[in-house]
Amino acid sequence: MDDATGQNDTDRVRQLRIVVEAADYDDALAFFRDVLGLPEQESYQGDGGARVAILDAGRATLELANPAQKAMIDEVEVGRPVAPAIRLAFEVGDGRSVTARLVAAGAEQLAPPTVTPWNSLNARLAAPAGLQITVFQELGDAAG
Q1: CA-CA distance, 16 to 28, in Å (whole number)?
Q2: CB neighbours of 68 closer than 8 A, spacing ≥ 6?
Q3: 131-138 and 120-127 as β-strands: parallel, antiparallel, unpaired?
Q4: Residue 34 included in any domain
Q5: Has residue 133 been placed in a domain?
Q6: What residues form DSSP beta bridges with 126?
């Protein structure tokens, strides 16, 4: 059945999968699976020591931002330009406790949990595999 875009079910994208090369695979897997809590859906091993794990990160969205928006988000979350071209953002239920847990597991806190103008609590971290991540908690009508 066609939708508003004119696409039918067989034409639609069904999953966004971000593939990240992790030089220290075990460290990255432990951080994202065991500390951040992304459940492992599948994992495979291949010749030559090849390994991959597919982790469930919940609902995926693709956020496209122009350079001015990227700069504004950096300013709000960190106070200076720091983000690479690709940054992962994870919505969590308790931004402060998740941030503390990730820092305790070795992530570098680039900026503490901060209430944004769009009313979410965002923290910026440098994570394993060379990834920069934002942990965010939607605050709804309550601030703080």
Answers
A1: 20
A2: none
A3: antiparallel
A4: yes
A5: yes
A6: 108, 132
